[in-house]
């Protein structure tokens, strides 16, 4: 008996090491999960049945009330959408002026929560979309109000999502008001995130919205993450203590959105966006624009690299005006008394 | 004999399947921390009264299933369940003649040891549980033992599992 115990212990330790270090056991795990993950579906069945029954026997007045509520909500959202089109267009134009990469439209797909992780010390959920639905490792997950977390384990038809509030999770964020960057770490409490290493003098206030900054290359930029709940300045501490409440309903949402962002690099995205814009503006002949695109670079480079020759070139023109060149230097003193005189 | 064994084996496996379902069934947040170690309880009972049917290999396989369900490292729960079964099997002769409350106490110690092993293993993988609340499932399981034991013994008599 002791020998058998020893063999099993060694076997399980070996399995753990292999599972932690190598990807050898991933197919085994996914095959096992194919069968075992059905049990999450089974434990979710009473809830599903209850919802089905409730929707069958929902009274007419309730349905009418709900319908009306949804209609008003829809109206409000559509009202906001009207402005959104104009704002998006404006944003694209401003980004063009700044020569920064174009906005990307992420695709989303709806997934449903089918189970919670039974371990109370981790914040993970199980959703009903998996590898066969195109989900990838590290994919961001949203709900209607904000970011929820990321996919950490893939199974054929299900996947496990690590929530923002897990103690092992951190997300790069920035304050929406002024762009101040920080890192929001989970605390193990589903209603609280903590901002680490925020300087005591940083401009951050209670009520500030924190959005994802996209710096970690994992979450897309600009999704709401949390609102600041309290900022504590303790002179004994090197950093301010900042706590925030996640905007997403981490322990209540049943329907989630999986974000499919493209894996292209920013340069490729910018090029593709430029091409798409050219395709839109078919009135102008396309070959001219590629010719103009390299042009700004040669023009810009002399301007930047040769600031010294530029005055030298300019000198011959100003040789005649050598006296006026000296006068500008003399002018300001003349101007200063003028202003002082005005002041007097 | 062989026919009875094949006829009754499925009941044991059915209890294990129910145990697996119970160990992942959704619970209110505040009760999550008190979730009994259902598989450990069932394994302890069957190892105590059916040692020729349920042994450490069964415990190992169930532990692997639980690992897949929980998303922990493959082998983590397998190790703790094997440990529990080993301890129960080695104390089996004495445990069977103990009165119920004494069985509870011994099982409390066994479950506590298993939870301690679990804590070490999860600390190795980087998500250490922040409190000592990890012994609570062990306590709850030990308190549940009399009911589980009576219930399963009734099941044994009803279906004449041997």
TrEMBL record, chain B:
GO terms for biological process: regulation of cell shape. This is Rod shape-determining protein MreD. The chain crosses the membrane at residues 6-24, 33-49, 69-91, 103-121, 133-152. Keywords: Cell inner membrane, Cell membrane, Cell shape, Membrane, Transmembrane, Transmembrane helix. The lineage of its organism: Bacteria, Pseudomonadati, Pseudomonadota, Gammaproteobacteria, Pseudomonadales. Involved in formation of the rod shape of the cell. May also contribute to regulation of formation of penicillin-binding proteins. It comes from Pseudomonas fragi. GO terms for cellular component: plasma membrane. It is found in: Cell inner membrane; Cell membrane. It is a multi-pass membrane protein. Belongs to the MreD family.
């Amino acid at each position: 008996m002791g020998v058998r115990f020893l063999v099993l212990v060694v076997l399980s330790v070996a399995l753990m090491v292999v599972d932690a270090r190598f990807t050898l056991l991933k197919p085994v795990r996914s095959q096992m999960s194919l069968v075992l993950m059905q049990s999450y579906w089974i434990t979710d069945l009473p809830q599903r049945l209850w919802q089905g029954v409730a929707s069958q026997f929902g009274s007419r007045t309730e349905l009418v009330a709900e319908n009306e509520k949804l209609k008003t909500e829809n109206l409000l959202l559509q009202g906001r959408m009207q402005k959104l089109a104009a704002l998006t267009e404006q944003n694209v134009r401003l980004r063009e002026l700044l020569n920064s990469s174009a906005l990307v439209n992420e695709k989303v797909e709806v997934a449903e929560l089918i189970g919670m992780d039974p371990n109370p010390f981790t914040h993970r959920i199980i959703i009903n979309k998996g590898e066969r639905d195109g989900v990838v490792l590290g994919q961001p997950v949203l709900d209607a109000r904000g970011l929820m977390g990321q996919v950490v384990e893939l199974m054929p038809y299900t996947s496990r999502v690590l929530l923002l509030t897990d103690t092992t999770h951190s997300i790069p964020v920035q304050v929406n008001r002024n762009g101040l960057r920080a890192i929001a770490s989970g605390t193990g409490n589903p209603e609280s995130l903590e901002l680490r290493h925020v300087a005591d003098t940083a401009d951050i206030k209670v009520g500030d919205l924190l959005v994802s900054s996209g710096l970690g290359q994992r979450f897309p930029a600009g999704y709401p993450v949390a609102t600041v709940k309290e900022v504590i300045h303790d002179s004994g501490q090197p950093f301010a203590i900042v706590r925030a409440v996640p905007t997403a309903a981490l322990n209540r949402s049943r329907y989630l959105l999986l974000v499919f962002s493209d894996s292209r690099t920013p340069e490729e995205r910018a090029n593709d966006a430029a091409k798409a814009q050219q395709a839109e503006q078919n009135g102008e002949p396309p070959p001219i624009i590629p010719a103009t695109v390299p042009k700004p670079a040669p023009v810009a480079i002399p301007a930047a690299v040769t600031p010294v020759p530029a005055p030298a070139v300019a000198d011959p023109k100003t040789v005649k005006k050598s006296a006026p060149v000296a006068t500008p230097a003399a002018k300001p003193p003349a101007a200063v008394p003028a202003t002082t005189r005005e002041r007097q | 004999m062989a026919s009875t064994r094949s006829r009754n084996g499925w009941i044991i496996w059915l209890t294990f399947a129910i145990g697996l379902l119970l160990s992942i069934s959704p619970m209110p947040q505040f009760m999550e921390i008190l979730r009994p170690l259902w598989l450990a309880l069932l394994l302890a009972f069957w190892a105590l009264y059916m040692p020729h049917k349920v042994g450490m290999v069964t415990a190992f396989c169930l532990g692997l299933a639980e690992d897949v369900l929980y998303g922990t490292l493959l082998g983590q729960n397998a190790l703790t369940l094997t440990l529990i079964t080993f301890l129960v099997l080695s104390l089996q002769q004495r445990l069977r003649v103990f009165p119920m409350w004494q069985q509870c106490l011994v099982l409390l110690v066994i479950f506590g040891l298993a939870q301690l092993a679990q804590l070490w293993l999860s600390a190795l993988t980087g998500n250490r549980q922040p409190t000592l609340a990890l012994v609570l499932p062990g306590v709850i399981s030990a308190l549940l033992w009399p009911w589980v034991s009576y219930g399963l013994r009734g099941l044994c008599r009803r279906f004449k599992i041997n």
